[in-house]
Amino acid sequence: MRIGVRGHDYGCASAPVMAERISNAGFCCFQLALHKAIEGMKPVYGQLNPGLCYDIRTAFEKKNLEVAVLGCYIDPANHDDEKRAYEVKRFRENVAYCRQLGSNIVATETSNFKGTEDERKKQFALLTDSVLRMVEQAERFGVFVGIEPVLTHTLNTPHLTGKLLDIVACDNMQIVLDPINLLSPENIGRQREIIDECFDIFGDRIVAIHAKDVVIDNDGRFRRCVIGQGIFDHEYFYKKVAQYKPGISVLREEAKPESAHLDIEALKRFTENV
Length: 274
Fold this sequence. Notes:
By secondary structure, this protein is α/β, with parallel strands linked by helices. Helices cover 42% and strands 17% of the residues. The chain is built from nine helices and ten strands. The protein has helices spanning 15-25, 34-37, 50-61, 81-97, 117-141, 158-168, 191-202, 234-244, 260-272; strands spanning 2-6, 29-32, 66-71, 105-108, 144-147, 173-177, 206-211, 213-216, 222-225, 249-252. An eight-stranded parallel barrel has the order 1-2-3-4-5-6-7-10, surrounded by four helices. It has a two-stranded antiparallel ribbon with strand order 8-9. Strand 1, helix 1 (15-25) and strand 2 (29-32) form a beta-alpha-beta unit. Helix 4 (81-97) runs parallel beside helix 5 (117-141), helix 6 (158-168) runs parallel beside helix 7 and helix 7 runs parallel beside helix 8 (234-244). The longest helix has 25 residues, at 117-141. The protein is globular. The mean pLDDT is 97.
């Protein structure tokens, strides 16, 4: 499997400087969120153009770095129709320029959620409408939309993720799986069960993996730590990944540059010994 990182975990800089940082750290691919990682970029519609994309792509190609995922994190279930339409428009623009930036996946999460389950149904309907529009654009340009479920967001369980896949019914919609994002201190004891649910329901539709690790602190909350030093069952998880998606990109999230070498060593150990 290919071991990568989020670009903006190495700050915000020009594309050549960012490429140098990621390459020197030892990663071979990365997730690029333009406005978070590249100086001068903003989360607005209309800034992308072929010349800009060429400059960004070639800077990373010179360091043999693949843009595994283009991150365009929007609020696709916003109740304000005008704001939601703008967010979808911005995402669709990223889809249009995805290949010119050297990738074939544009990814997002699905909006924070704190309401009742009845309210979730309404927000899920908004999310579905947005994703259908995003996937329509992805079909046109021959790329993938990667949707990432998160326990505290609209799309919060493997089963609801499967429902969205069924409704959209298009192979251009895929899943970015971060298993930690579906876990909590309350359900960590069921992590193998939840991992199994993910692969049983959408194992054939996973397009990228996000990797991190956690411990439970004295307040009973998750605290991030170096990969392999926490309580996540990496061995069990990556055996599943190898079975369903050999060779997939595994992207370290929330990397700390000073300990990235430890993350890489651990991820290689878990992904090569399966």
